[in-house]
Amino acid sequence: MQNDLQIEWYKFRKQRLPLYSSLALVLLMIYSGLTSSDGRSLMLSSFGAIQWLPIILIAVGSSFLDMEYRYHTVIMLRYKSSNLFKSYLAKLVIVYFYGVGLVLLALLLTILLKGVFVGNQVRWFDLIADRGSILQITLVNLLGTLLYLLFIVTMSFMLILIVKINAAVIGISLAISFFGAGLSEALIKTFTDATTILRWNPLNMILVTQQLTNSQYVQISHLTNPEIIVGVFGYALLFLILGYQLFKKRPV
Amino acid sequence: MKFSLYQEFYKFVHRKLTWLAPFILLALMIFTGYSIGYHQEKLSTMTCYDSPDWIVFILIIIGATIFSMEFQNNAILTLLYKSKSKIQVYLSKYLIIFGYNLYLHGWAILFTVGLRYAPLNSHVSWSTIYRYHQPLWQNMLLTALVDLLATTLIITLVFLLSCLIENNAVVTTLSFLIVFMGQTVSASLLNLGKFTAILKWNPLNMTNLTRQYYNYVTYFQTSHLLNYQLVVGTILYIVIFFTLGYQIFRRKRF
């Protein structure tokens, strides 16, 4: 496992897409700061990072796996590894650690940008009615995003193995990010009798990033906090297993 | 030129995505039918169940892969060697995608005619007077025509970006962001208040064309341009992006 991780880290480091993506995140957060005047919502959503992190991570994750198939190096991966599952897992772990790094970057930038764009209008320790201080809410939101990123990384690997076209995976990820919550809500509203089953649909899981700190979202997702966390972990496991089976079966 | 067109057509027809796309379009249109609601029958028909958004989605994916496919498999050199001039290569790809654009719009209209009789929305006759004091069928056909122009702009932009940037993922992400967020970015630019007369002609504003045609009142505030001005602007930017894209393609070293 140690060897696999080192190999994957080397491959990841030499790519340019992760670097451009971190830059894109910085630019997007600055853009949010410039165009929004609501200081409190900017801080709570980490200057929009909570929305952009899943998109960036899907693009990076699917490109990382697609790279192997595009340059026909998958056969090296299978031949040189003692355990195929370990090499698949190593890729996942590297991309997830990149996600963790992005979350830390987002946190740092939020603190910095808050001083520039929001100034002293809103302070970090201001309390919001029975939700805690702003700092606390922001941190828990980022933690929720970390959880959701596990779901996202496993899903991106599975999607690229199913769809095989990188552009399509990125399109699907953008669609899920922007329309996913609305889609799930529309589905639940249309078939209200089947709510107890439909509320477990994967698109509903995006709400974990907001729900942990804002109990209003429970009305939208129809899932309590423990339930949605179990759902996210469950789907991550499902996508991991499905993705690995596809990876094993796919001809090199 | 004929041979280049035949080559591109052959490559295009032998991809699975080309044949899968109309079914994906149908699924998305049915989904839109359910989300818009039972009583919005007229809007649903006029916009062909929001097919402009879905067609753009499909076209970006196909357009981004059409160039990167050549670059990645190193087939670009053979392509350039075998054709009489570079403009033939570029133009034939462009015409094939434009033809596919027409094809998808045709399917969208056919599906709309079929979906109207489905139980997911209330029945409104074809000759109901709707926007611009025209019957519904005229609205639908004109929206499809206007949308053809808008999607051609997006295709030209995708061609330009894929000649500039080698990385498939970046081109796709940029195109999607321009399509789905272009409206917001342009609106914030125009909200700054200064230089509105010049800024309103920015290319991102042109993505509002189809949406403004079927919902004039809401979108006029955002775009600050009349319908015919948006059309003229779109055509202008198509020409500009096409020329730019071709110049970059010509000078590129493979």
Largest interface: A-B, 22 and 22 residues
- Give the number of domains of chain A: 1
Class from secondary-structure proportions of chain A: mainly alpha
**What is the averaged pLDDT score of chain A?**
87
Q: N- to C-terminal separation of chain B? A: 22 Å
Shape of chain A: globular
Alpha plus pi helix count of chain A: 12
**Helix-residue proportion of chain B:** over 70%
The topology string of helices and strands of chain B comes to HHHHHHHHHHHH
Biggest sheet statistics of chain A: 2 strands, antiparallel
Instruction: Give the N-terminus to C-terminus distance of chain A in angstroms.
Output: 22 Å
Name the beta content range of chain B. Answer: under 5%
**Percent in helix of chain A:** over 70%
Number of helices of chain B: 12
Account of the protein in words:
Chain A: Keywords: Membrane, Transmembrane, Transmembrane helix. Chain A: It holds the Pfam family ABC2_membrane_4. Chain A: The chain crosses the membrane at residues 17-34, 46-67, 88-113, 133-153, 165-183, 228-247. Chain A: This is ABC transporter permease. The complex is a heterodimer of chains A (252) and B (254). Chain A has twelve helices and two strands; from the N terminus they run ααααααββαααααα. Chain A has helices at 2-14, 17-35, 39-44, 49-70, 74-80, 84-118, 134-163, 166-190, 195-198, 208-211, 217-221, 225-249, and strands at 127-128, 132-133. Chain A is globular and about 60 Å long. The model of chain A has no long low-confidence stretch (mean pLDDT 87). With 254 residues, chain B is mainly alpha-helical. Chain B has one domain (2-179). Chain B has helices spanning 2-13, 16-36, 41-46, 51-72, 76-82, 86-115, 136-164, 168-191, 196-199, 209-214, 216-223, 227-251. Chain B is globular, with a radius of gyration of 19 Å. The two termini of chain B are 22 Å apart. The interface between A and B is medium-sized, with 22 and 22 residues.
